[in-house]
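Moderator note: this is an archived Q&A kept for reference. The question asked for a predicted structure of one protein chain; the sequence and the answer are reproduced below.
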Amino acid sequence: MNTVLTIDFDFFVQAPFMDLGFREAPFFINDMWEIRKVGSPDIENAIKISEHDPRPDAFARRIVENCDIGTVYICESHFNAYNEFRKIKDLHVINVDAHHDVGYSGGRTVDYIDCSNWAHALSPKKYTLIYPKWRRELDEIEWRDDIEVDFDMDIHYGLEFIDDELTSFPHLLLCRSGAWSPPWLDDEFMKMALILASNAEQSMVLDYDSLDDFKRRSDPVKSV
């Protein structure tokens, strides 16, 4: 099979309430974080890099030290995985993510493809989902047994499973998912992106013109 690795940065972001009131739109990627910070001064301690899994840069170094990488895609939305990988035959997707991304609408419609259902729309031959350990440790289990998929799928918790898969990846996609990953963690995302991009045969930035455009303001707006 042709194996690709996708990494959603929100895997590393421990946020027990991260599924409440989030949407992938410019307002939620930028302004909503500033509003939340004004209303919750301690939010940086609540939404932080998880202590249950390796840090993002450490995981990136482990990847580049143990496997060959063809093209790295750095992007905002996980939707790009559908665009970039849909023409690959006999596809095995390994998705490191805090969310399953096989659709949350019950009917699994693909009339509109976005970051929530790209994996279902892609319909790979095999889909390996790796959840963060904090999901299990904090009893924030997302997967339900009544979710139906029409492809071979296995689920793991923790990055140890990746060790057995680290050989080579012709395609690796890293998305920030800024609606779920706050601006005060952008430096962590950038470190990971630079490690992966600088050790690949080639890298591509999607959604923005350059990596510099990923930087957001992390200071709260002044209350009125």
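Archived answer notes: The two ends are 56 Å apart (CA to CA).
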